[in-house]
């Protein structure tokens, strides 16, 4: 597994873990509080920060292990990695657009900020996850 593919997998693994933890927190809070009273802002900030730091740490650790196991493997990106990253970003953008439209609709109906903020947050997550899945598939099957 090359450098680019490892980074894609690291991002997806950490993303699912931290967003899963955030979602669990929200569900516990929503079980006994109305959405307007849930403290979601700082937990969301910490989720994003944990996702960034966790992805970096996992990528570095995985890279060290890969470098020890196979010293001859190149640990840099090439044109194929760049093309796969662009394709994954294009695939993921659709979910960001859908989330943006959803947030606009929520604002139009004067929904609580909780719903607007979380609609955008989960749109970003789905965009990254679906884009990452598309990239992982492209690494295994190639670009069409």
Spans of at least 5 consecutive residues whose pLDDT stays below 50 are none
Mean pLDDT across every amino acid position:
92
What characterizes the major β-sheet? none
Report the radius of gyration as a whole number of Å. Answer: 18 Å
> How many β-strand stretches?
0
Number of helices: 4
What is the H-and-E element order?
HHHH
Reconstruct the topology from this structure:
Blueprint: H1 3-30, H2 41-69, H3 79-108, H4 113-141
Characterization of the model:
- With 144 residues, this protein is mainly alpha-helical.
- It has one domain.
- Helix content is 81%, strand content 0%.
- The longest helix has 30 residues, at 79-108.
Short description:
By secondary structure, the chain is mainly alpha-helical. The chain has helices at residues 3-30, 41-69, 79-108, 113-141.
Descriptors:
144 residues; mainly alpha; 4 helices; 81% helix
């Amino acid at each position: 597994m090359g450098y680019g593919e490892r980074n894609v997998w690291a991002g997806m693994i950490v993303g699912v873990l931290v967003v899963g933890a955030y979602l669990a927190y929200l569900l516990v809070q929503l079980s006994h509080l109305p959405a307007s009273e849930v403290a979601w802002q700082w937990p969301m900030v910490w989720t994003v920060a944990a996702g960034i730091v966790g992805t970096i740490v996992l990528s570095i650790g995985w890279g060290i292990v890969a470098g020890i196991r196979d010293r001859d493997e190149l640990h840099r990106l090439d044109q194929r990695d760049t093309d796969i990253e662009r394709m994954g970003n294009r695939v993921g953008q659709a979910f960001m657009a859908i989330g943006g439209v959803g947030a606009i609709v929520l604002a139009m109906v004067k929904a609580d900020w909780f719903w607007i903020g979380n609609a955008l947050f989960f749109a970003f997550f789905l965009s990254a996850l679906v884009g990452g899945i598309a990239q992982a598939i492209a690494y295994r099957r190639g670009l069409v």
